[in-house]
């Protein structure tokens, strides 16, 4: 037995196999790499983080509106929120119902309290829906004629 030397060991590093979660995160990181590199270039280009002034003004206006709301704002907000909660209770079972019922009931409640804005939104949504349906019709017609 030697006191000063140890026998040479044959060691081998074996890496643990990657799980499906680790594989998915790795794929996601590789897909997002160009975007994160772009963001890093934007942020490191200046010494301060720039905040868009429109975003700041949006939140400051919202804060001021909530500090001095128009008359009857909070009761209306309560009724509209309650309509959404009722929609959640009525939408048991289906995930689609859980999306549609609360949104529809809240939309109806909002339209009752704000009819002029509801009409304006309905006009814009109607023209957009018409444009999308026309584009779909043209695409289907083009496919049909090609065959």
UniProtKB/TrEMBL annotation:
Transmembrane spans: 73-91
Predominant location category: mitochondrion
GO cellular component terms listed in the entry, alphabetical order: MICOS complex
GO biological process, one term: cristae formation
Record localization: Mitochondrion inner membrane; Mitochondrion membrane
Keywords from the named record: Membrane, Mitochondrion, Mitochondrion inner membrane, Transmembrane, Transmembrane helix
UniProt cross-references to InterPro entries, sorted A to Z: MIC26/MIC27, MIC26/MIC27_animal
Subunit structure: Component of the mitochondrial contact site and cristae organizing system (MICOS) complex.
Function: Component of the MICOS complex, a large protein complex of the mitochondrial inner membrane that plays crucial roles in the maintenance of crista junctions, inner membrane architecture, and formation of contact sites to the outer membrane.
Family: Belongs to the apolipoprotein O/MICOS complex subunit Mic27 family.
Protein name: MICOS complex subunit
